[in-house]
Amino acid sequence: MGTKTSRDATPTAYQRRLLLAALRDPQHRLPSTARSVTTDVMRRRQWVREYGADGRPLDPRRSDGERAAGSRFRLTHHGVNAARRAEAAVTSRP
After folding, report:
1. CA 66 to CA 79: how far, in whole Å?
2. For 12-60, what is the HEC assignment?
3. pLDDT(1) > 60
4. Secondary structure of 55-71 in HEC code, one letter for each residue
5. Which residues contact 21 (CB under 8 A, 6 or more apart)?
6. What is the pLDDT of residues 18-77, one digit of tens each?
7. What is the spatial distance between Cα 65 and Cα 63, in angstroms, rounded to a whole number?
8. Of the candidates 17, 19, 14, which has an alpha carbon nearest to the alpha carbon of residue 79?
9. Residues whose CB is less than 8 angstroms from the CB of residue 45 and which lie 6 or more positions away in sequence, other chains included
């Protein structure tokens, strides 16, 4: 599990774009083109959770090492908070 420090980490520019895109999505889904390395980091930071095609959360401890067919990542409440912090940082720039 991630720690408070990892949940509050500053996202990279690419992570920020994904977070902001998911924040705009009605179901808070990350774009399907998100890189798996990035989604793994975001999952460890508890920003996203993977859901199956049926809409049910998938077990993050799966040992298959690959994304399930039709799965999508969605923001958790920590991810929404990170996205809102990123959005505030972008809008407050001069």
Report:
1. 22
2. CHHHHHHHHHHHHCCCCECCCCCCHHHHHHHHHCCCEEEECCCCCECCC
3. no
4. CCECCCCCCCCCCCCCC
5. 30, 31
6. 999 999 999 999 999 999 999 999 999 999 999 988 888 887 666 555 566 667 999 999
7. 5
8. 19
9. 2, 6, 7, 9, 78, 82
Q: Are 47 and 79 in contact (CB under 8 A)?
A: yes
Contact call for residues 25 and 75 (beta carbons, < 8 A): no
Q: Residue 2 belongs to what H/E stretch? A: none
- Are 24 and 52 in contact by the 8 Å Cβ rule? The answer is no
For residue 68 the two structure tokens come to 């399930």
Average pLDDT of the chain is: 85
Q: How far is CA 59 from CA 5, 17, 25, 36, 48, in A?
A: 23, 26, 23, 16, 13
